[in-house]
Amino acid sequence: MNSSHRNPVILIHGIFDTTAIFRKMSAYLTQQGWEVHCFNLIPNYGFLGLDRLAAQITDYVDRTFPPDQPIDLVGFSMGGLVSRYYVQRLGGIKRVQRLITISSPHNGTWTAYFYVTPGTLQMRPTSKFLKDLNQDIDLLDQINFTSLWTPLDVMIVPASSSQLPVGQEVQLNVLFHSWMVQDSQCLNKIAETLSAPVKTSRHITDNKM
Asked: What predicted TM-score, i.e. pTM, was given to this entire model?
């Protein structure tokens, strides 16, 4: 397939993960013709807030791509929230044309109560971080937004927390949270979503803080 009309894709991992979790996905998308990028969020165990991790996306994008280069983001688990913050709060909406989140706790997860760090506090269902991020969720309607999730997820509790009232929602019956990034049906759906035409009329509202 011709990759000349495709945006570079950046893969953003979740808590306790590294870029290694995307080994299969990266190889698959590269084989399909995408230019794939990924980098480690540091630290990866929640010691920094998700807003500060999102700033690492800004830094990576600014030093890797020219100012007029559009990009696509794929965020797994916590990485989906980090990606959303970049898009909704750090001006990423001016660059990002497609955002795919995979098993991300958009409405929080009860498992975040088992581990106390700045990052996990923000992933609790009643956190100020999520309330703020979800108050203008309609911003995501300005781009191609897709949430992939599995109802069998026991890391995101309830699993339906991955649902949002905007964009496209895809439910996949994948047995485990971590399997979502390597399951063949999920990979196929990601490629299909990254191939979809972008919205032709984009009235960008910049909520950069």
From this structure: 0.94
